[in-house]
Amino acid sequence: MYIPPERLFTAGLNLGSSEPGDMIFGVLNAIWSWIMVILPTLSRVFEQPTEWTVNAFYAACDFRSYFSLPIVRLKLSSTTVHAHPHSIYLTCLSIFFGPIIVLLPLLLIYEIGVLLLFNLSFVSHGLLPGTVEDQYDSLHEHFMDSREKLFASVEVAASTFNTWTTNHLTLLITRVVAGTLGLYVLYAIWGEVW
What we know:
The protein is mainly α. It has helices at residues 5-15, 20-45, 51-61, 63-68, 70-83, 85-97, 103-120, 132-142, 144-167, 169-191.
């Protein structure tokens, strides 16, 4: 998003003032300028909804046809699964596995971060003491605490999720159906069934 420099400069003049009223006015002026710059972009985004949002809204509001024509609704959901199998697959696996599914992308981001920092340590061109293996081990150990906190919080959330699932039959059925549908969609993606 582009903010013209004169708007930033005007707000900056008031921010440097020693009076509290001028400073508050400068902050409000900067916020108002930002809103006026972003407002046309937001209006273009919400100007014309896409076709699937309109269809989904009318399908959700039309209760009589939902109960009178369940076969049509099943065909509509079938076309949704055919159109977006990967998002349906990820949603089903997220429901089936619960909070544990969060660990994979977060650990991947963690390892990429450690490797990036390790490779950035080569900028010093050998000025750091020790061998390369020692540098990697020390960097890995330094960030181990954050990884352990992540594991602990996900373990608590997963145990709560499993407790709720075992205590309530509807949640258990939802979880099993999501797992089964996820496996079916995975089979369809790999085998190109549809």
